[in-house]
Write a structure and sequence with these properties.
This protein has about 250 residues and is α/β, with parallel strands linked by helices. The protein has a seven-stranded mixed sheet, sandwiched between helices. The chain has a two-stranded antiparallel ribbon with strand order 5-11. The chain is globular and about 60 Å long. The N terminus is likely disordered. InterPro entries: Mannose-1P_guanyltransferase (IPR050486), NTP_transferase_dom (IPR005835), Nucleotide-diphossugar_trans (IPR029044).
């Protein structure tokens, strides 16, 4: 039996940028001798970036540019010694360019500048279909698409009725707000829209939003997502992944 290709399959990215240059100050002492993407989630034996590269490969990516910064040599050494499922190029900013400038600098090293690309922050640990997100992006003729997550709040919540009776207690419920999940699909022209220096979330994104060319794609309900910012996040991720059997 022959299977038909999805009509958007040809427009799905095969290249990606991983932003791995942050200081990771809130993850100290783990980041005293390594950059944040090199921190291992307890019980997995693999640094965060190793999980990311595996996920990108599973989603059809063949080439990745890793933007390095803090303790770049540690990350570069690991990438050179590890058996990786994708081709990896590393770039290091000679001087700080800001988030938008750094993203543009890294994107300029992608092997296919005339094709769309994914990007992800180096501290994100997630699993969902990037192919579906790319199709969402193509179907809307977007210039940029952001994955949207609903993180859980760190406190227990209380539900009440209209009279004020407490009706339920809910431990760490998802927030009602969607946030930028740190995973993106970009069309080829997006690279030239980025600032050479500065923050694209204060320049490029607002402009595209005004032009109605910026879209948000919710991460599917039940898909795993967590930003690893603190030691508590590491511990929580370890427990969650153990519960999921990963």
């Amino acid at each position: 039996m022959r299977f038909m290709k999805h009509p958007n399959a040809a427009s799905r990215p095969v290249q990606a940028v991983v932003l791995a240059g942050g200081q990771g100050s809130r993850l100290r002492p783990y980041t005293d001798d390594r950059p944040k993407p090199m921190v291992e989630i307890p019980g997995t034996g693999t640094p965060i970036i190793g999980h990311q590269l595996t996920w990108l490969a599973e989603e059809g990516v063949t080439d990745v540019v890793v933007s390095c910064g803090h303790l770049a040599e540690v990350l570069q050494q690991w990438l050179e010694s590890a058996e990786l499922p994708v081709r990896v190029t590393t770039v290091v900013e000679k001087e700080p360019l800001g988030r938008g400038g750094g993203l543009k600098f890294a994107a300029q090293h992608l092997p296919h500048p005339d094709q769309p690309w994914y990007a992800t922050n180096g501290d994100i640990w997630t699993r969902f279909s990037l192919r579906d997100m790319a199709d969402f992006h193509t179907e809307r003729d977007a210039v940029a698409t952001l994955a949207l997550a609903r993180p859980r709040i760190p406190w227990g919540a209380v539900e009440t009725d209209n009279f004020g009776h407490i009706t339920d207690f809910i431990e760490s419920p998802p927030t009602s707000y969607e946030i930028n999940a740190g995973v993106y699909v970009f069309s080829p022209e997006f690279t030239d829209m980025l600032p050479d220096l500065g923050d694209h979330e204060r320049t490029t994104f607002p402009r595209l939003a005004r032009e109605r060319r910026l879209f948000g794609c919710p991460i599917p309900q039940g898909a795993y997502w967590r930003a690893i910012d603190t030691a508590k996040d590491l511990a929580e991720a370890a427990k969650e992944l153990a519960a999921l059997g990963r």
